[in-house]
Amino acid sequence: MLRSEVNQEILSILPGKSYLEVGVNRGKTFFEVIADQKVAVDPNFLFDFEAERANPQSKNCEFYQLKSDVFFSEFGHNRRFDLIFLDGLHTYEQTLRDLMNSITCINTNGVIVIDDMIPSTYISSISELSQSQRLSAALGNTDSSWMGDVFRLAFFIESFLPAFSFATVGENHGQMVLWRQTRKNIPERTLESTCRMDFGDSVLQRSVFNVLPCAEIISRITSART
Ligand SMILES: C[S@@+](CC[C@H](N)C(=O)[O-])C[C@H]1O[C@@H](n2cnc3c(N)ncnc32)[C@H](O)[C@@H]1O
User: Is the CB of 29 under 6 A from ligand 1?
Assistant: First the structure.
């Protein structure tokens, strides 16, 4: 299931239709998603965003060629969005900052989606992109996918964000979906232990990610609203 298809399914059940995407790259997902207002943030768009600003088909779009931290502190703090898709720098710390910032500007019934939560291999889960690339090259790997240590966020969210329920889409590489619904029986962990989680934990503790079919996640979000 494409990232844009998951995002569109979620938007279809939300009362408002404003969309923020952090980490846009060539705009594959961004341009496929249909929403009333769309905001794109990336320090290095791989398309001509000045030309897009002048394109009538993109008249509901805004383009911020900035790092997400700058966007949130200078532009995002007084905005509200219904769906925020986090797909920027794939490190635990940066994605945690993006998540904290998103919580301050998500509408009450809004949803946050975090990409690349389930790393496919040990090499793809290394937090340093350059180290991951060096290892791939040394082993002659053709798969250069890098998901970083974003997976550590699952353990953080489970223990430190009880006001949000979450599940991870089973039909793709792991888009985690968060919505406001208080959880009970929160497992105790130290913050430090979440930083030490490794690829093995992402496999052996897969239940933490709560992997579900997209349709089931949509149904749970809908039930939480009624
Ligand atoms: C995996 S790509 C995004 C793919 C896109 N969401 C899609 O679905 O086609 C990751 C992007 O994050 C951007 N990025 C890196 N650091 C960032 C940061 N600090 N803030 C926002 N975006 C960042 C990169 O420039 C890159 O374009």
Answer: yes
